[in-house]
Amino acid sequence: MHIVNARLRTAPGLHSIFCQNGRIHRIIAQSEPLAAQPGTLDASSNLVIPPLVEPHIHLDAVATAGQPEWNRSGTLFEGIERWGQRKATITHQDTKARAHAGIRMLAEHGIQQVRTHVDVTDPTLAALKALLEVRDEARSLIDLQIVAFPQEGIESFEGGRALMERALDMGADVVGGIPHFENTREQGVSSVHFLMDQAERRGLKVDVHCDETDDPHSRFLEVLAEQARVRGMGAMVTASHTTAMGSYDNAYCSKLMRLLKAANLSFVSCPTESIHLQGRFDTFPKRRGVTRVAELDRAGLNVCFGQDSLQDPWYPLGNGNILRILDAGLHICHMMGYDDLRRCLDLVTDHSARALGLGEGYGLVEGRPASFVILEAASDYEAVRTQAKALWSVRNGEVIMQRAPQQVQLLPGR
Ligand code: FE2
After folding, report:
1. Ligand 1 (ion): which residues have CB within 5 A?
2. Are the beta carbons of 47 and 10 closer than 8 angstroms?
3. What is the mean pLDDT of residues 152-163?
4. In this structure, which of 55, 208, 317, 380 has its CB flanked by the most CB atoms within 10 Å?
5. What local confidence, expressed as pLDDT, does residue 24 receive?
6. What is the DSSP code (8-state) at residue 184?
7. What domains, with CATH codes, occur in the chain?
8. Is 212 one of the annotated active-site residues of the chain?
9. Active-site residue among 78, 152, 212, 376?
């Protein structure tokens, strides 16, 4: 495969990208636009970027909103309650069908790398069994990392530790946690020690739902970060949500930042989901209920955006388009300055890839997989301003998605 007239984020002008055997062979600067020849793919001066990444989603819960009841309070905790009702009716085929539908939504928007959390607080581990099959079946569209996610707790759910170990034995890729949901502070702390022990012993990555609350006293991030620091595992550890950081006072947060930098862990913020679920116990003024994305980013920490949900008990909307989340996130996190806008795609590409530990399996670099997306825009700024769509998605040298550009005609005087 040979792509011409590609605009890159990393170099001015137009480029040709030559691919061979599913890998990027050469990237060459063009002195002028080239006419597309048969067999070449014309990027038409649009951006060619590495595939978009979804670093935080719950594929086992896709398309379950309103089943059997809607989340009327809009809180995280009612979401967990409603999910508990739906979980009782789950079947293998039902989970697989919904997960595949979710993956198609993601692939239609140029996403090829996905990390999904899967609820393992279920003695039958039904959802995990389904998702392990989906991971293989969906390989032509996406690479899927599965997090063993203890939705109802490791310590406060009956048999929670044993279920986590079974899930990891069965082939989950990443160790999850939910310390703020455990019954006591002590259980939250011991759950973090347990999950870090599991990860270290098995050589696995960690992704913890951490402090997903407006409670300023929810301080498990410091526990997770310190564990990552002393074990030298920062590059393997992601803290998801950390919305309580938005409620911490600045004196505590400035001390915390020192630890976060020393630990060097990654962060995922899900801004649409968080602004929907958090702030629910406030009247006015209402907190935004998101973590300190801009501050983490300015401090040199790795932070990215995720969708979290596609039509589930926690969030009734969602269509798979991570650029919708980027747009909302830039608004919600006060990141609309030009310096942020001109490199905003980092938050849904390179930063997410780093959180997922994709290493040399990702990136528009000679020798790496020939996997990329053509966006209908010439720059990061234009991509987010125009809510650009992915026009082509190429995976290991094969086109896996193509979208016709939208045609609009104004009809003055009618
Ligand atoms: Fe989540």
Report:
1. 308
2. no
3. 97
4. 208
5. 98
6. S
7. 2-50+364-402 (2.30.40.10), 52-361 (3.20.20.140)
8. yes
9. 212
